[in-house]
Amino acid sequence: xxxxxxxxxxxxxxxxxxxxxxxxxxxxxxxxxxxxxxxxxxxxxxxxxxxxxxxxxxxxxxxxxxxxxxxxxxxxxxxxxxxxxxxxxxxxxxxxxxxxxxxxxxxxxxxxxx
Length: 114
Description:
With 114 residues, the protein is mainly β. The chain is built from no helices and 11 strands. The chain has strands at 3-7, 10-13, 18-25, 33-39, 46-52, 57-59, 67-72, 77-82, 91-98, 102-104, 108-113. The strands form 2 sheets. Strands 2, 4, 5, 6, 9, 10 and 11 form a 7-stranded mixed beta sheet that branches. The protein has a 4-stranded antiparallel beta sheet with strand order 1-3-8-7, with no helix packed on it.
């Protein structure tokens, strides 16, 4: 229902920062929430952060205090500011958006070197 394109991934040294972006388009329905998930090799996809249209946020315990999710409604874009990155943050990061269904982007690779 919604087309999502992630960007901003890459290689960063431990302690560094990245900002991921996810642009949404093509929805004929209201987006009620957007979020970021990640999946590392051999692990299930897990919630990183989510934000609702009302402005409430939710973060995984592992990223609290380091990551910040924000949603620019005018641009239909959600961002994930990632600070103090560690190698444990290495994963493919996926954006999603909830309308009457949940849509997923294709993901962007984040690699954090020691």
